[in-house]
Write a structure and sequence with these properties.
heterodimer, A: 317 residues, alpha+beta, OB fold (Dihydrolipoamide Acetyltransferase, E2P), 2 domains, 5-stranded antiparallel beta sheet, 9 helices, B: 260 residues, mainly alpha, 12 helices, 0% strand
Chain lengths: 317, 260
């Protein structure tokens, strides 16, 4: 069990708890404090940190048992892949021979033992990231911190590494915090999702719950839902539940909005509109319907949704 | 490589540039031309020249060693530790760069001379000894070394130190295994600079350590004496120093001459 309390005035004020073996995926817009949260756990920013029954708050960075995979690939450029992975075990007191054996075992688990002698500049992005994750895990940390580990990789490399990481995280007995911009990471890797917004925890819950009932515009956008505040409640609905018309729709539904079309772009079989209503809304319609309405950026449209097609839930958990 | 045709270089810029090149090149060219190549081995073989060469070689090597041992930690401190007065310390460290060497010599005598403020308490004598030569050379060379290494330390920043710390390395381990290896090009460049500065050092040496053949007479000091008594010897020795200096320049060319 770890408990982290970060309180940096004006930047981050968040309390986070996670159980051993749990994977917590941290999402939120840029500047929400995601990286700061990880840095605080590692001791690179001030903050109250409790791991198990140990208080880490005043513990120097080297004495915190973390594995940190940084956002920029931070392999030591002058060391081989093997020496990079063996660095942690050696720094924590293992002899050279044992540290090398540990490192080799980790490279084997990641299927890159044949690259042991290569320098980081001789590795592809995916290979380098495997080395970085192996290096973080090789010290047997209590907490594994991954800051956007798939950023900068091409899509197929991302998929392969994501699957592989998922496999290793299942065996990992410590707590994992993974910062990402990508909803797929939350769906495939998370036990729970932690949503940060403007330095505060906006939502915590299982991925399915967070995806179905997002509490922040950022998450709604990530999962492709429209999110409209309505008093103490939030209304979420899919873009294909939206009806587009040029004149004010008939009926008494309160779920109607008006605004100019900002963009229209193909989305699967449909055309997806982004409309600058308050707030911004997405609407999907068939290409035929879009042509019939003569939609173009700047054109004023009415949007409406049936009350039966939206989900309504409290804005606070 | 030819750029776009913007017209001929104007004489008002061209003439001073050519004069400048001439001023720099002509004396060195005549030095090479005036060297008595036939009698060169004979001059080099004389005892006084051999002694000066040996002292210069020894003292410049020891100077580099002293710079590495003292300057590397100093550069690390300036680049990595945020302490009060860091700017002042850096400014003080760089003073010898602009100080006239003879003033450095006088300052060394005042501090470390036999009756100097510090020197009178020392169990050994520095002035007029080979050790004194090394002290004087280190005084003038250290700033070059520190500048080069501090620059190299700053190019990589502290990000790899942070990574090392998260992997459990204390600062000494991080320094040995990460910081220093990454700064190695700077250490080599700084050593070359310090060595070159030491080779040509004259003012501080002659003021603090004197000019005694066999103990403190370095190549520049011998050249100075020889120019009056035997100009051929002076030119021969000068040529050797010229070749060594150009050698250092070639060694550093990738860092500077190309202009990073």
């Amino acid at each position: 069990m770890i408990h982290v309390g970060v309180d940096l005035p004006g930047r981050v004020s968040a309390d986070v708890s996670a159980a051993a073996g749990e994977v917590l995926v941290v999402i939120g817009p840029n500047g929400a404090g995601k990286s700061t949260l990880l840095r605080a756990i590692a001791g690179l920013e001030p903050g109250r940190v409790r791991v198990g029954d140990e208080d880490w708050t005043d513990r120097a960075v080297p004495r915190r048992r973390v594995g940190y995979v940084f956002q920029d690939q931070s392999l030591f450029p002058h060391l081989s892949a093997l020496d990079n992975v063996a660095f942690g075990p050696r720094a924590r007191g293992l002899g050279r021979r044992e540290a090398d054996a540990t490192a080799r075992a980790w490279l084997e688990r990641f299927g890159i033992a044949d690259l042991a002698g290569r320098r980081p500049r001789e590795l592809s992005g995916g290979q380098a990231q495997r080395v970085a994750i192996a290096r973080a895990l090789a010290t047997d940390p209590d907490v594994l911190l991954l800051d956007e580990p798939f950023t900068g990789l091409d899509v197929s490399a991302q998929m392969a590494l994501r699957n592989e990481l998922g496999k290793h995280l299942r065996d990992f007995t410590g707590v994992t915090l993974l910062v990402t911009h990508d909803a797929i990471d939350a769906v495939t890797l998370a036990d729970r999702v932690l949503v940060l917004d403007e330095g505060r925890v906006a939502q915590v819950g299982p991925p399915a719950e967070v995806a179905a009932e997002p509490r922040t515009p950022h998450v709604a956008r990530l999962v492709g839902l429209n999110l409209v505040p309505d008093g103490d409640e939030l209304i979420a609905f899919t873009p294909d539940a939206v009806t587009v018309s040029l004149t004010e729709p008939e009926g008494s539904s309160r779920l109607r909005w008006r605004g100019p079309v900002a963009t229209l772009a193909p989305h699967g079989d449909a055309v997806r509109l982004l409309v600058h209503a308050s707030p911004d809304l997405l609407a999907d319609l068939t290409p035929a319907a879009a042509a019939e309405l003569g939609l173009a950026p700047g054109r004023d449209v009415w949007l409406s949704a049936k009350a039966t097609a939206v989900s309504r839930y409290g804005a606070r958990a | 490589m030819t750029g776009p045709r913007l017209g001929r270089a104007p004489a008002v810029l061209l003439v001073p540039a050519v004069v400048g090149v001439a001023l720099l090149v002509v004396p060195l060219a005549t030095l090479v031309l005036a060297t008595p190549w036939r009698t060169l081995p004979e001059h080099l073989g004389s005892q006084v020249v051999r002694e000066a060469l040996a002292i210069t070689a020894l003292s410049s090597l020891l100077t580099v060693v002293a710079c590495v041992l003292l300057g590397t930690p100093l550069a690390w401190l300036l680049a990595r530790v945020d302490f009060r007065g860091r700017r002042v310390v850096r400014a003080l460290v760089l003073v010898p760069l602009v100080l006239p060497p003879v003033v450095a010599g006088v300052a060394l005598v005042t501090a470390l001379g036999r009756s100097g403020l510090v020197g009178q308490h020392l169990p050994f004598t520095l002035p007029y000894t080979t050790s004194g030569v090394v002290v004087a050379h280190t005084f003038v060379s250290l700033p070059f070394y520190v500048l080069a290494v501090e620059g190299a330390l700053r190019t990589h920043g502290a990000s790899y130190d942070v990574v090392a710390a998260t992997l459990g390395a204390d600062r000494w381990t991080a320094f040995r295994r990460v910081t220093l290896p990454l700064a190695l090009p700077g250490v080599l460049a700084g050593s070359a600079l310090a060595w070159a500065r030491s080779l040509g050092e004259f003012g501080a040496t002659i003021t603090f350590a004197g000019n005694y053949p066999g103990t403190t007479q370095t190549m520049p000091s011998l050249i100075y004496v020889a120019l009056n008594s035997d100009p051929t010897v002076a030119r021969t020795l000068s040529l050797i120093l010229l070749v060594l200096s150009v050698g250092v320049l070639v060694l550093l060319r990738e860092r500077w001459a190309v202009g990073r």
